[in-house]
Specification:
By secondary structure, this protein is of the alpha/beta class. 33% of the residues lie in helices and 16% in strands. The chain contains ten helices and twelve strands. The strands form three sheets. Strands 10-9-11-1-12 form a five-stranded parallel beta sheet, with helices on both faces. The protein has a four-stranded parallel beta sheet with strand order 3-2-4-5, with helices on both faces. Helix 2 links the parallel strand 2 and strand 3. Helix 4 runs parallel beside helix 5 and helix 8 packs parallel to helix 9. It is globular.
């Protein structure tokens, strides 16, 4: 699985004059959510407990920096469990896996550690329950995304994937009176509800899931950038290209009034020409992004004269998830001090 190593140096951004005072509006909440934190700590704890290598199916979270750091500590990322040596330890990513993947790991005698985000696990359970009751499940999400593959794999005979609002206008169901919608947890809230409304216009008996599937962190980060976007000449979203929620933040920023918006993995990707004539820059990060990467972007912007940083907070987050059961105790059998994951400040 290809990763990008950090550039050893970056060119300094120039402090060019603009009309008015330069400033940064820093979104909060941003960055790591509880599910990402739990998954990353799970790999770190597995390496401490069992020693390297520990295998991870897919990227543990969708962030190239996190994956690179874990590789350097001894994690080996694979696409499928049949690449893992028999009897080895394997961690399932935060995005979840289908029962077929779980069975494949068992067939190879692998010691599996499930780091699936509990909010994704909730959607899996909903899919199982609705399939048991013989509902047709319209799964709103991006075909090919690991989370969607895992959820659909819980009830493949009952699931139809709806990729976009436009697909809601053409999807075919067997029984319009027995249909329910579920969704990928990292989508745009607005686009998801547009899809649901268009589905309901065609299928008035469409049922809702027991609770909102869009994860709290995805919603909170979108709300924060919406508040900032209307005042921003430029929005910079820190996050990787395969991070659905990071990509959505760029789209939401543009939809809610930002004059321009770009996604970067690292500070060295910020372009000088983006700053031409820009007074106000909004900065945020996706839910799988460590805060250090945001701080590096702020340092780069400071060099360009954007030293005035105002944090714009729209919610408080204090949720934490327990680590997978295999990792809640240390080697002596005592409860591990990081059993709840978490060593990040909640931005």
């Amino acid at each position: 699985m290809p990763t990008r190593r950090r550039a050893p140096e970056r060119a300094r951004l120039e402090n060019r004059p603009v009309d008015g005072e330069k400033r940064v509006l820093l979104a909060a909440p941003r960055g790591y959510c509880a599910g990402v934190d739990r998954a990353v700590v799970a790999v770190e704890k597995a390496l401490e407990r069992y020693g390297a290598p520990v295998y991870v199916r897919k990227q543990i979270v969708h962030n190239i920096h996190v994956v690179t750091e874990l590789e350097q500590k001894g994690a080996i990322f694979v696409e499928e469990v049949d690449e893992v040596p028999e009897g080895a330890h394997v961690v399932f990513s935060a995005h979840g896996v289908s029962p077929a993947v779980v069975q494949g790991a068992a067939d190879r005698g692998l010691h599996a550690i499930d780091a699936t985000c509990p909010l994704v696990t909730k959607v899996h359970r909903e899919a199982v329950r609705f399939a048991r009751d013989d509902f047709e499940i319209l799964l709103i999400g991006h075909e090919g995304h690991e989370e969607v593959e895992g959820t659909a794999g819980e009830a493949p005979e009952h699931v139809t994937i709806v990729n976009s609002p436009d697909e809601a206008d053409t999807v075919v169901v067997k029984d319009p009176n027995k249909v329910v919608w579920l969704s990928q947890t990292t989508l745009s809230v607005d686009e998801t509800m547009e899809t649901v409304n268009r589905l309901r216009a065609r299928f008035p008996e469409l049922q809702n899931p027991p609770s909102d599937d869009i994860c709290y962190a995805t919603q909170n980060r979108q709300v924060a950038i919406k508040k900032i976007a209307k005042d921003a000449d430029l929005v910079i979203v820190v996050g990787s290209a395969n991070s659905s929620n990071s990509v959505r933040l760029v789209e939401v920023a543009l939809e809610y009034g930002a004059k321009a918006a770009y996604r970067v993995d690292y500070a060295d990707e910020v372009r000088q020409e983006w700053l031409d004539g820009v007074r106000t820059i909004g900065v945020t990060s996706g839910a799988s992004v460590p805060e250090v990467l945001v701080r590096e972007v702020l340092e780069a912007l400071d060099e360009a004269g954007y030293a005035d940083v105002e944090e714009v907070r729209t919610a408080e987050e204090d949720l934490m998830f327990s680590l997978p059961k295999e990792l809640r105790q240390d080697t002596s059998g005592k409860r591990d001090e990081r059993a709840l994951g978490g060593r990040v400040s909640r931005a």
